[in-house]
Amino acid sequence: MNDLPATMEQLALRVQQLELRVQLLESAASQPAPAADHPAVPLQQPTPLSLTPEPDTAPPPALAPSATGGRFPVIGKALLGIGGAYVLRALAESGSIPTSILVVIAFVYACAWLVMATRTADEDWFASSTYACTSALILAPMLWELTLRFQVLPAWAAAALLTGFALSASALGWKRNLASVVWIANLTGVLTALTLMVATHTVVPFLWAMLVMALASEYAADLGHWPGVRAVVALSTDLALALAAFIYSGPPNRHQDYPDLPAASLIAPAVVLFLIYSISQAIGTLIQRKTITTMGVTQSMLAFALAAITLAQFGGPAGVTSLGLACLALAAFCYPVAFLRFRHLPEPRNFHVFATWSPTLLVCALVLLLPAPIQAPLLAAVALATMLLARRLGALTLRFHAAAIFAVAAVTSGFASAFGQAIFGTLATSGPALQFALPFTIAAASLLLYALTGPSLPDRWFRRTPWVVSAAFAVAAVSLFAVQGLILAASLAILPDVTHIAVIRTLTLCLITLALAFSGARFSRAELVWMAWSLLGLVGIKLLVEDLRHGHAVFTAISISLFALTLILLPRLVRLGQKA
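-> C-alpha cells emitted (580 positions)
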C-alpha cells in the first residue's frame, strides 16, 4: 500500500505516452506526408516493479464455482423450468387451451430445455446435466398425466413423443458428443415407455418406440458415440418384449385387460429386435473390423432367444419351421465367417464367438426341421463328417463341434439312457428290435467317432476335451455292448436274477477298466487312462448302489473282490503299458 501512489503515477505516464503514439499513427495514416516539426516526446523509463510481492499484496486465490455459488443459479433456472411445467398443467386442468395446442406447447417447452442443455460450455457439465434432467422431469410427468389422468393423448401419440424426444437429444448432442444429455434423454424415453406400456395396457406402440430408440443407439454406438447408452436401451427393450410375451402367452385371465392382438403384432417386434443387433454385430465385426464385446454377445443371444420363443409360442407350426430355417441360414453364415474371416486374426474372440454360434445354430436347425426318428442318426452323421473334416484340416475347433453335436445325438437317441440302464438299472433282455436299434446304432457310431479323432495332443487338458468326450462315448458303447452280451449269454444257460446281473456287470466293467489302462498307456492315449480311472470310480458307486443293497452275501463278496483286484492291478498295468 505504501508503493501504490508511485505505481499509479507510473501507470498514468505510460497511458499518456500510448495515447500520444496512437495520435501520431492516426495522423500519419490520414496525411500523405508526416508532420515535419512534431516534437519528440521523451519516454521515461518506468521504475521496475518487484516481481516478488509482499505477503500483504498477494492477489486473492480464485474461488471454486461451488464457493462462489456458480451452481445455484443453474438450480434456480431449473426450478423455474419446473414451475413453468406446473403452469402448463394448470392450463390443462382449466381447459382454456385446446388439447392439441397444449401438447405441442408442452413438448416444445421440454425440448427447449434440452436445447439449453446442449448450448452450455464444454466444461460446464453440471449445467448441461441439470437442464437435461429438467427437460426429462417436464416431459415424463406431462405424458403420464395427459395419457392416463386427462386421457387426451392416445398411446401411439405418447410413444411418438417419447421417440422424438430421444432422437432430438441424440441429434442435438451429436456434434459435441454430449453423452450425459443423451443418457438422460434415452433413459427417460425407455423407462417412460415401459411404464406407460404397463399402465395403459397398450403394448404395440411402446414396443415400436423402444425399437426405434434401440436402432438409434446402436447406430450411434457403431459410429463411436456414447456406446454405453446402447446397453440401457437394449436391456429395457428386452424386458418389454419378454413382458409382452409373458402376458399374451398365459391363460386368458392374465391378459383380459389387454386388447387382443394378432400373432404378427407380437412376432414382428421380436424379429426386428434380433435383426437390429445381429446386423449391427455383423457390420461391426466384418466391415469395421472391431472385436465383438461382451455386451454385443449377450444382447445378440438375448435377442435371438426372444425371437425364437415368440416364434415358437405364437407362430404355430409355421413359426417353428421358420425358426428352423432361420437357424440353418445363420449357421451357414457363421461357419464361413468364423473359419475364413476370423480364424487367423491375432485377436481370437470373434473367431471363438462365431465358432460357438455355428454348431449351436446347426443343431437347433436339425432338431426343429427334422422328424424325431431321424434326428439322432443325422446328428451323428454330421458329427462324424465334422470330425473327419477336422482331422484333415487340423482344426481343433471342429473337433469340439463334432464332440458337441454327437453329445446331442447321444442324448436324443436314448444311448445315454441305455448306458445308465446297463450299469445301474434293469436292462431288458427282450423286446422289440426298434427299442434297441437306435441306441445301439449311436453306440456303434461313437466307436467310429473315436477312431476318427486320431492321435491325441500332448497339450493342456482343455485342448484334449474332444478326445476325452469321444473316448467317453466309446467306452460307454463298449460297456453297453459287453454287459448286454454277457447277460444275454447267461440267459441261455440260467435265468439270471438281480444278484447274477450285479456280478456280471462288476466283472465286465473291471475287465474293461484294466484293458483301458493298459491300452491307453501302451499307445500313449492319456484319455483312455483317464477313462479307466473314471470307470473304476463308477464301479465303486455301483457297488454301493446295487451290490451292497440287493446282492447275496456270496455274490457281494465276489463283486468286492473283483473291485479290489482291479484297484491293485490298474496302476501296474499302466506302468507295464508305459514300459511296452
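The mean pLDDT is 84.
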